[in-house]
Specification:
The protein is α/β, with parallel strands linked by helices and 366 residues long. The chain contains 15 helices and eight strands. Bound molecules: iron/sulfur cluster.
Length: 366
């Protein structure tokens, strides 16, 4: 078995630690490029969700490199995530690819298929101390990769040399790819955190704070969202992203829950009482949380035509008014262009800075 899977930020690093240590050969699809997007757009139905198109192209590129098995997460309504796996499987079959498509659905939709898919994904192994040890190491790698990105977003506008910041983070991510034991993992973690602490800081006063909310794929995958968080950081903003694969997994597994998600859902309740699919509720709740924490603005990232995020978008109009919180909505698909997006982000940051100065002046006068 040679398995491939979709990209989602640094998921490939964690899976690259997990599978070789389980004895499963994997083929990491090439990084997402314009060519990847073109493949997905050509093969998927025109009105399919943008993430379906890009992940389908990841599979094709992985298969072209020799993969014979696909690992994919399943999902259910009320939005279209539940259709991803079955549609992608049919498209690949129609193209003549002879692959084993392994779909991991939530156990609530069938414990047996869940266990069977999990076993296939673990190379046919049952739960053993070896599997638990390796899975726990891969989980730590995933968490650390997200923590490093959190540091990068927070620090970019505060350090004198953002290039050095990128070098430290990229270096650590590269080293994490080859981790096979706890000791190496800890030393990478400690050295990287020390390197980040030692970075020279600028004199920064009153940085504007921007939170990111939205759909899990577009809000995280910097290769498709034109790295909005880097643009924001380069423009002088402290950035925080509320969307996390770790929290998603915690909330999806049968015996764990994401505290962050539960809090966001609670905050969203006065505006949205029902699950609308995807990250719709999280988007509303996280925007409220940013407002309560004193953030100056929110960037809402989502795939064009994403139903849960369109629902969230209409509710965010009220949230924006009630909390006096500027929100920039960025819908992304294959037709989006970097130049237009950067211009909108620049204008947004400009507005936030002016508002902040005005507020400060008013406070000084009163
Ligand atoms: S959350 Fe949005 S983009 Fe994702 S499957 Fe649902 S409708 Fe499509």
């Amino acid at each position: 078995m040679k398995a491939t899977f979709p990209h989602l930020l640094h998921l490939d690093i964690a899976l690259g630690v997990l599978y070789p240590n389980l004895g499963v050969e994997i083929i990491i699809p090439p990084p997402i490029t314009q060519k990847t997007i073109e493949i997905g757009v050509e093969l998927a139905p025109q009105n399919a969700c943008f993430p379906l198109k890009v992940t389908l192209a990841n599979f094709v590129e992985g298969i072209e490199l020799g993969a014979d098995t696909i690992f994919m997460a399943g999902g259910v309504g009320p939005c279209r995530f539940g259709y991803y796996g079955p549609i992608q499987k049919i498209i690949l079959e129609d193209l003549g690819y002879d692959v084993n498509f392994v779909l991991l659905d939530h156990p609530r939709y069938g414990v047996r298929p869940f266990i069977k898919a999990l076993q296939t994904m673990a190379g046919g192994r049952v739960l053993s101390s070896r599997v638990i040890k390796v899975a726990s190491l891969a989980w730590k790698v995933l968490r650390l990769s997200e923590d490093l990105e959190r540091e990068r977003r927070a620090l970019r506008a505060q350090v004198k040399d953002p290039q050095k910041l990128d070098e430290i983070i990229e270096g650590a991510l590269e080293r994490l790819r080859t981790v096979d034991n706890e000791k190496t993992f800890q030393s990478i973690k400690e050295e990287t955190m020390k390197g980040l602490e030692n970075l020279e800081r600028k004199e920064t006063e009153d940085l504007i704070k921007v939170g990111i909310v939205g759909e899990i794929y577009i809000a995280q995958e910097t290769k498709v969202n034109f790295n909005v968080e880097k643009t924001l950081g380069d423009l002088g903003a402290y950035v925080h992203n509320s969307v996390s694969t770790v929290e998603y997994v915690l909330h999806t597994l049968p015996f764990t829950r994401s505290r962050e998600k539960l809090e966001a859902w609670k905050l969203a309740k006065p505006y949205l009482k029902r699950f609308v699919g995807g990250e719709g509720i999280d988007t509303v709740g996280s925007a409220i949380r940013y407002a309560q924490e004193g953030f100056d603005g929110v960037v809402h990232l989502y795939p064009f035509t994403c139903m849960p995020e369109v629902v969230a978008k209409s509710i965010l109009t009220s949230v924006s008014k009630d909390y006096d919180l500027p929100i920039l909505h960025l819908a992304i698909d294959e037709h989006s262009g970097e130049a237009g997006l950067v211009t909108r982000v620049e204008a947004f940051v400009d507005v936030l800075e002016r508002r902040k100065k005005l507020k400060k002046r008013k406070l000084e006068v009163s």
